[in-house]
């Protein structure tokens, strides 16, 4: 997947990696400066949590979800990393193939940087956000514990349904 992710770096025409918005977009070229995939220290049963960190000058509508979907195909062995080259070459692949986008749930927009502009956040707003996220985390952990207990009650010892 990382080998395929590196192929996105640079300026490319990403029309095969977005939802078409021909009414509002005429230039599908975007510049990706960095794309790294790394393991996180979190697991759920046999599932691992991984992080895709993407930096670029701008993104098209659903571009990241489409890029992630293709990388998931590569990771599952359903495509080779070369598929990225083929999809970025609009003379070779002039129309976007039909594939399902990656789900939006795990995606997080961490930051936006603009030349000559700096954003400031008050300490009160920052603290309120931290408290909100801690509360949400606590609620989800509590829900997970409840579901885990329910599965324990319903399952044969040592297995999940």
TrEMBL record:
Domain Pseudouridine synthase I TruA alpha/beta: 4-115
GO molecular function, one term: RNA binding
Catalytic reaction(s) noted: uridine(38/39/40) in tRNA = pseudouridine(38/39/40) in tRNA
A biological process from GO: tRNA pseudouridine synthesis
EC number: 5.4.99.12
Keywords, in A-Z order: Isomerase, tRNA processing
Annotated Gene Ontology cellular component terms: cytoplasm; nucleus
This protein's record includes keyword Cytoplasm: no
Superkingdom classification of source: Eukaryota
PANTHER family in alphabetical order: PSEUDOURIDYLATE SYNTHASE, TRNA PSEUDOURIDINE(38_39) SYNTHASE
Sequence similarity: Belongs to the tRNA pseudouridine synthase TruA family.
Name listed for the protein in its UniProt record: tRNA pseudouridine synthase
